[in-house]
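User: Hey, my collaborator sent me this sequence without any context and asked if I could get a structure. I don't really work with proteins. Can you help?
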Amino acid sequence: MPINIPDALPAREHLERENIFVMSEERAVHQDIRPLNIAIVNLMPTKIATETQLLRLLGNTPLQVNVDLVHTASHESKNTDPAHLDRFYTSLERIRRRRYDGMIITGAPVETIPFEEVDYWRELAAIMEYSLRNVYSTLHICWGAQAGLYYHYGIDKYLLPEKLFGVFEHRRHDDHAPLFRGFDERFPVPHSRYTDIHLEEVEARPELEVMATSEQAGFGVASAFDGRQVFITGHLEYEVDTLAFEYRRDAAAGLDTALPRDYFPDNDPSRPPVATWRAHAHLLFANWLNYCVYQATPYDLAEIEEIAPRPRG
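Assistant: No problem. I've predicted the 3D structure and written it out in structure-token form, which is a compact way to encode the shape of the chain:
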């Protein structure tokens, strides 16, 4: 089944070349079903690349999905054409009266900055507060997961001695969790971050269920309120060459960034990397859409009940 996105969105051309089923807006309005309404809060500076990564995964499921791209209006993006944002993005103020089956909050390259010092923190906090009442299931990715755990549960991040960078093996903890249905017991996940969440602090919150961890990368995935909140510290959505791009970008900037672990064949950056996580990425997003969103969201979104992860501690 298709994903419904604006006809002129740059991601459309990439997805159609990959035979991802993308429906035109004109055709979508004649479908006699209620599609899922998903908001993507895109905090990444490379917005078009992130749009394409996420839409590729959302578009490879048996469900029709309508997508609203959301940005933080209080932040001036230096890497995306303002015309692209004006044409394809909306903001919290414009969606306050809407409700969504699901929301995705992406990562952002600000993890070394204290949360309250990020220039758009107040707006992001308002979006996360909005999600408690108006979104059925919210998927938080990387720094988005750290921000969500901090805002909703008071769990802070900690600076690592060096960048956690590469593809790391994770172990799922529940053989029957719908989010991991069809997963191998161990699965690879790309990571690219300078900060960490302490596993014991997540385990100390009774609302949170730790679902996957890694011996090298630590805390990996947690869920709350039967999948209404999902927190993933890695980047399953990454394309095969994303870590290579980041490595070369860091090298060009003079940063002493080590080679990403278990990524380049024989640790040779001249050789093209191989994506070992792609199947699990598609499966996780399909499971999230199916079990956390489609199977659980009320048909009438006005009937969404508020999540109450209080008090923070």
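In plain terms: Residues 278-294 form the longest helix (17 residues). You can pass these tokens on to your collaborator as they are.
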